[in-house]
Write a structure and sequence with these properties.
The chain is an alpha/beta fold. The chain has helices at 2-49, 53-70, 136-139, 145-167, 192-201, 205-221, 234-245, 268-271, 300-307, 316-321, 323-341, 360-367, 375-385, 392-423, 439-443, 445-463, 478-487; strands at residues 85-87, 97-105, 109-118, 125-133, 175-181, 226-227, 231-233, 249-255, 259-265, 282-285, 432-437, 467-471. The protein contains 17 helices and twelve strands. Strand 8 and strand 9 form a beta hairpin. The chain binds adenosine-5'-diphosphate and magnesium ion.
Length: 490
């Protein structure tokens, strides 16, 4: 009896063990199949995103020829870059000296700045800045330009008042107030009415003209002896800043949430025939976010991102390279892996389905995680997507996706820059300084490194010294100070 029991018990244990092992084998098989499937998705994505040097040159050449095409008279245009907006006032010479004021109108706020210039070899100093939120009732109406200008004038008056002691009275000679606009790209912001109006500014000098006029009336009404000469895009201000420090500065690139480029064109009569300006050169805001080429390495993830965006078919280049979109591309790849390969378990984490939930600073933090077990990656997965745990292998895969997306974006920016310098005919025998500004470039180290190394790779040791990439210093609002300086008669 006792013996029988033992035998039965032993048989049961053996059966259980066999069943357990079989379960483990099945689970292991399933997991490794899932891993293989995730790997396959990743490899395929990486292959689509590849940017060998030959492809980068195709992009650069097309960028150069599109820029050329934009300069032909309207009607004959073949390019994709959008109508160029030119800015005909002079750029700084580097000799400007004095205290200057500026204003930078942004998404939901504006910043008033003041700073001191003492010539090319001295950095911008004594900066003061003040940021003011724009009330919602102004933002939500596209008819509120007057009200906004009133508000800005009142705030400028207060700001100038604070500095009267050190700067002396403004009134002795009418001063120029440098005025820049940074176009918001974030459609998730609540203020679309006024935004869409500002956005037209980059296509339409008249909107800028109207804003300048309203602002001048408001300044006058409030008794401020300052005048806005022209309202321009922030990127042109950064180009002015670059030019102040270096005569060879020929282009400025913004790489933040959105992206934009201003460059110097030496043939103004081709563009603005009716202009009587004697300027030998003009700054052009080239709207490079609109660039499109069949050589761009677009994937199905980019296609669906674009299709579901607020402006399908538009700003394709921007959607590949700028801070607004990088994290979203990564999220889309992760979602597919979660759905098809159970990357995060049998249930797809609900938060992973929320568009734009992964922002580029978080993507950069995961990408740049050098800890032993990718602890930052896991912390971000938890924080953003509520994913409780993940294997080291999965975390590694996450960083690889970030790498593919950042590398592709940064290399395309590098190719675009080479294209611009080529268009200017400056690749050989001349130095060109490119000023880059924006949070993405400033804070995403790996992205920045890819960008720099791509320019070297494309130009080779012989030519790469001719293209010098500088980070724009001075921070937010500084661009408007350089504009004020260049618009002031000396
Ligand atoms: P904007 O285009 O609004 O002027 P900024 O130039 O201020 O933007 O840069 C902010 C953008 O830069 C953010 O929206 C983000 O996309 C990107 N960014 C900021 N910090 C980081 C970071 N640490 N890593 C990666 N991207 C960042
Ligand atoms: Mg910016």
């Amino acid at each position: 009896m006792k013996r029988e029991l033992v035998v039965v018990a032993a048989a049961t244990t053996a059966a259980a063990t066999v069943a357990g092992v079989a379960f483990l084998v099945r689970q292991w098989r399933r997991q490794s199949n899932q891993q293989l499937s995730a790997q396959r998705i990743l490899r395929e994505f990486a292959r689509w995103c590849a940017t060998p040097t030959s492809k980068l040159w195709q992009v650069a050449n097309e960028m150069a020829s599109d820029m050329e095409a934009e300069l032909t008279p309207p009607g004959d245009r073949g390019g994709n870059l959008g109508v160029p907006v030119s800015y005909l006032a002079g750029l700084p010479t580097g000799e400007e000296k004095g205290t200057f004021y500026g204003i930078n109108l942004r998404g939901t706020n504006f910043m008033i700045v003041r700073g001191k210039l003492e010539g090319r070899n001295e950095a911008l100093s004594d900066m003061s800045r003040q940021e003011i939120e724009i009330p919602l009732h102004i933002l939500s109406s596209d008819d509120s330009t007057k009200e906004l200008c009133d508000l800005m004038a009142v705030e400028v008056a207060k700001f100038v008042g604070l500095h009267v002691e050190s700067d002396g009275k403004v009134g002795e000679r009418e001063r120029i107030l440098g005025f820049t606009v940074s176009l918001p790209v974030d459609d998730l912001l609540p203020s679309s009415a006024l935004h869409s109006k500002w956005r037209r500014l980059s296509f339409n000098d008249a909107v800028g003209g109207e804003l300048a006029q309203e602002m001048n009336q408001a300044l006058k009404k409030h008794g401020i002896e300052m005048r806005v000469y022209a309202v321009v895009n922030d990127t042109i201000g950064h180009l002015a800043g670059g030019r102040y420090y270096n005569k060879e500065s020929v282009a400025a690139v913004s790489l933040g949430m959105g992206t934009d480029v201003a460059y110097i064109e030496s043939l103004p009569q081709q563009i603005v025939k009716e202009s009587s300006s004697e300027a030998a050169e003009t700054a052009i805001n080239m709207q490079w976010g609109n660039f499109f080429s069949s050589h761009l390495p677009l994937t199905e993830y980019d296609a669906s991102l674009d299709a579901e965006s607020a402006d399908p078919g538009c700003r394709i280049f921007e959607k590949l390279i700028s801070g607004m979109y990088l994290g979203e591309i990564v999220r889309r790849v992760l979602l597919r892996m979660a759905e098809e390969s159970a990357l995060f378990g049998d249930v797809v984490p609900p938060k992973l389905t929320i568009s734009y939930s992964l922002r580029s600073p978080d993507m950069a933090a995961m990408h740049q995680d050098t800890s032993q077990d990718y602890e930052i990656v896991q912390a971000k997965l938890k924080e953003i997507f509520d994913i409780e745990s993940s294997t080291t292998l999965v975390r590694e895969m996450v960083t690889e996706i970030c790498d593919v997306v950042a590398e592709r974006g940064a290399r395309l920016v590098g190719a675009g820059i080479v294209g611009i310098v080529k268009k200017m005919g400056r690749l050989a025998n001349r130095k060109s300084v490119i000023t880059i500004e924006g949070g993405l470039y400033e804070h995403y180290r790996i992205y920045r490194n890819y960008l720099h190394s791509t320019v070297w790779e494309m130009l080779g040791t012989d030519l790469c010294d001719n293209v010098i990439i500088n980070h724009s210093h001075g921070g937010s609002g500084a661009a408007s100070i350089f504009l004020a300086a260049s618009q002031t008669d000396h």
